[in-house]
Specification:
The chain is of the alpha+beta class and about 80 residues long. The protein contains two helices and four strands, in the order αββαββ. The protein is globular and about 40 Å long.
Length: about 80
Amino acid sequence: MLIFAAENVIFDKVVKHALQHDGYVGGWLNNENKLYYFDSTRLFPEDQLEEALNFGKENGQLSVFILSTATECVIEYQH
């Protein structure tokens, strides 16, 4: 399996960002367009869910994923 050059450049940027920060890369499947996305990821201890949700809001995220329970916690924005 090989990836296209353009996607490799984008993935390289994700990895570079991850290495400059917490060192984690995560991925998720967008069920609407069936594309898989990779992101530089920050991990939070389970007792810091509120901090994770705030970090998510500050970074325009849609949800927080709790690894230990495989649960998605949707971030609610006030309009």
